[in-house]
Amino acid sequence: MASAPMVYKSNALVEAAYRLSVQEQRIVLACISQVRRDEPVTDEVMYSVTAEEVATMAGVPIESSYSQLKEAALRLKRREVRLTQEPNGNGKRPSVMITGWVQTIIYREGEGRVELRFTKDMLPYLTELTKQFTKYALADVAKMDSTHAIRLYELIMQWESVGQREIEIEELREWFQLQDKYPSIKDFKLRVLDPAVAQINEHSPITVSWTQKKTGRKITHLIFDFSPKNPTKRVAKAKGRMSDADIAKMARPGESWDQVRIRLKQRLEL
After folding, report:
1. pLDDT of 54-100, one tens digit each?
2. For the chain, how many structural domains are there in total?
3. How far is CA 102 from the centre of its chain?
4. Do 133 and 199 share a structural domain?
């Protein structure tokens, strides 16, 4: 029996600034799930996905999938990604890199099929990852119809071994490329946060809740708590994937280094 398709991304790519539509996300993720992990991959390898496969994966009518796939394929070639970190936990890039997802994309009319090559710059963020990467089953996000839900799920799954993640709102806005959209926190919750969390809770294998944190009088951070829906299938521990910088980000106000380590260790052992 074939194993379930998995998505592997460098944490640097998970936290990159970019914007894709839901259909574009489905194309990219379906192709990423085909990337071989047992051998080097070059930018000559072509990956493909059909409208029928997308429709089955997402649980949508096949008729609408044909036209949406073609339109998404044409847009995807022009989409950019803004990366500020190196893959495999190698720290900040010496300069910001703006690159594309794909170098070539082909839509085969008679087959309803998209074929693509990832760019040479993108491959290190998708292949031969040994540390600081995020993985999840493609099926976890396949039925989500909110691009923000897919992105938020990836950001949460970075911390799957901890069960909690704190994110600065302005950082989240940058990653989602929202620019000046939804400037008030009320609109941001209504248009982005609440629908994304609802989608994750409906379609993914985890349950998420969130609270907000203020700096002074301003709401500046969101704290996401999450756990598996099925407690007998625990989320795999990401042993060795958390750097000192990652642990430091999880510190609560007033906590010492030792206190935050003990708290995270206790959470892992629950």
Report:
1. 999 999 998 888 889 999 999 999 999 999 999 998 999 999 999 99
2. 2
3. 17
4. no
Please state the φ and ψ torsions of residue 227, each to the nearest 5 degrees: -155, 160
What region, left, alpha or beta, does residue 156 occupy, with left being phi > 0 and alpha being psi -120 to 50 degrees? alpha
Cα–Cα distance, 70 to 81 (Å, whole number): 21
| 259 CB neighbour count, 10 Å cutoff | 12
Q: Give the lowest-confidence range in 109-113, 214-218, 264-268.
A: 264-268
Contact 151, 136 (CB under 8 A): no
Q: Strands 92-100, 17-18: parallel, antiparallel or unpaired by DSSP?
A: unpaired
Residue 128, token pair as written in the block? 């031969």
The answer to whether 59 and 53 have CB atoms below 8 angstroms apart is no
Cβ 91 vs Cβ 85: under 8 Å: yes
Whether 263 and 185 share a structural domain: yes
Among 85, 109, 143, identify where a domain stops: 143
Amino acid identity at 42: T
Name the amino acid, one letter, at 115. Answer: E
Average pLDDT of span 120-125: 95
- Are residue 225 and residue 204 in the same domain, yes or no? yes
Domain span at residue 227?
146-270
Instruction: Dig out the tokens for 195 from the structure.
Output: 């629908």
